[in-house]
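Hi P.,

Sorry for the delay on this. The queue was packed all week, but I finally got your sequence through. Input first:
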Amino acid sequence: MSKPKQRSLFEEDELPENPMPWERESAQGLYLAQIVLNRPVDRVFHYLVPESMRSVLRAGYRVRVPFGRGNQFVAAYCVGVGPADENQPSIRLKAVEAILDNRPLFNAKMLKLTRWIADRYLCSWGQVLECVVPAGVKNQAGTRLVTVFELITAVPRAENEVAEVISKLPAKQRAVFDVLKSANKPLTLDELTQAANCGSGPVQSLKKKSLIRSLQKRVSQFSNGDEAAYAGIKKEDDLQLNIDQRRALDQLLSAIRGKEGSTFVLHGVTGSGKTEVYIQAIREVVSYGQQAIVLVPEISLTPQAIQRFRSRFDSVAVLHSHLSDSDRHYHWQNIAAGKVQVIVGARSAVFAPAPHLGLIIIDEEHETSFKQETAPRYHAREVARKRSELEGVPLILGSATPTLNSWLRVIEKKDTLISMPNRVNNLAMPGVNIIDVRNDARIRRNESIGRVLHTGMQHALEAGGQVILFLNLRGYSPALWCKGCGNSVTCPHCEISLTWHRDKNLAVCHSCEFSSQPPKQCPRCGAPGLRFVGAGTQRLEEEVRAKFPGYSCKRMDSDTMRGVGSHAKVLNAFAAGDVDILLGTQMIAKGLDFPNVTLVGVVDADTMLHQPDLFASERTFQLIAQVAGRTGRGMQGGRVFVQTASPAEPAIVKAAEHDFLGFSQLELGHRKEMNAPPYSHFARVILRGPQEERVQDFARQLAQILSDAASEKQLDVQILGPAPAPIIRLKKYFRYHFQLAAANVEAILQLWNEITDKLPREKAIEYIIDVDPVNMR
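Then the structure:
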């Protein structure tokens, strides 16, 4: 008897990049599954497919397989199924033990995309697949197993014999039988006994007579509180577009109708109406029965942003960090079933299983939160670019301050620029005043609000306006300083200054969350009288309340916004005018649109500028420009005060002039001279271990191996370092790093793949590689 022909999820023209050669029938008659595991080893394992699974198992399913010497069962991913090649070695293979899902979690294009991510970011395919599927989907949160009963339609007895057994059934057993027959679907015990008006006895008797059988069925119990929270939002009509918006939309609609997999950089100043262009482009996509994915930074997932989409579309799934596993599973199922028109979410929403994808949008594309810091260390922008290519749909990258990476692609004509240089209703950009605080007496007294900013705030509040203050440091004081030895008190596990949180009277490490009572004397020299130096958002709040006692003030940072709905509560109060002064960290720097905000104050523009980071200047410019964009959105206009001790710094000057083109030209010139990104690619290798000398020696050894391999293979890759990481000790481990630099990323990937199996192992020392890093600390 011939074996059943197993149809793979891959079509002939959609084979994965590394398929097994299973085109011919196997002489051995074996069926094999290609399996990858969530392990840092990029290898495909082969398992036998039992006869009972051959008609079901396809690429895209999760399975349970025995793995390792102890044959422990682990969850894994099937990436291909088919008859074994005739050249397959005759070895004893383990078999797939179980299929874990009712339907595949990945289609062919998603498997291709995840394979590309594994290759591009030098991690295993299994790690990528594990990252793509939310935990709530894997553990089927929001569902439960119930026992149901159904008729046995094929019994090993003659038909007349079955009829005779049925005719002799007692009344209650016959009632149960008739209920199941008329229902024509499995029923639970409660449903069955209630409909038949009997107890469980007749049901068990029918089981013994082999007329019915019981089986386990998974049923949903989704409450979906996330949907309920936005149930009262009223539907709104599309807004009238201005000339810039209409021109931008026309370009996008042309690409959508032409099914182009091209990338557009939508460069629009803050307040230019980019969101309305997104919405009307999505409207076109939805009219075709297609879906759109909108990626936003997690901190921009505010009720205000969510409401904009929910007020325009019938079905919107919002994916954010506060969702329960049950809600994530609920949204995943609805998205995969094509029931959701718009998927709005943070970085991981790029993997949303939309079967009818028509458009991808990344708003605030410059945000560093789009880069994942743990394996797989992908960048959502590059993943979206690849998915756009595979799906044949447009990608929109929107920002008032695009990354220099995206801007260079525009200059080189690889991506298409759409420009929106004016605010809606022809509102003027806010005037930005750079305040040199080096000679400010109040700043010298260790106050946060200088004389000019204080006066500006007073005038704005007295005129009925609202104020936003930005300070990118949380806590009360960011350093505990010893005047005896001149050192700050650092975390015992990290080379980072402890921050004093006055509300809890704790000195806290913002990297490992170590906390303790503030020491009464210096741990290094023993001198008493430590000073609390600098100001964080807690101290700023205290100062604001003291200087403006008649006005309501709220603070937004990761210390105050821990509870579910805390963002919404504060922002709704600010929108209603119940809060006069809103202060906080980056979460208030973008995505907010409040017309009554007439003054924005950047309390300390230097906090990011002097970091040991190649991208410090670019990020300073972006941050100031974005914060400045929160004001001047109403008819009364607005002003921005930027306090700095570096008033001539080009990033600050250009941000104050709203001159992105001037800044990008200047900064790209510096980068080109240094042959730094975006004119080259970096990959950062970070090593850590408990003994500094051994980590340093091992880093040198690894760097030398890579340097020798680059010479041998004639690959134009430079090895920069090794050197101590900017934060040399983090979470009890000493850290060293070095970088691989090349004109194109393919050379780096080739070099690493050439030597990855030859790299030595050192006990207690770990290392990772981060391709195109955005965090250099």
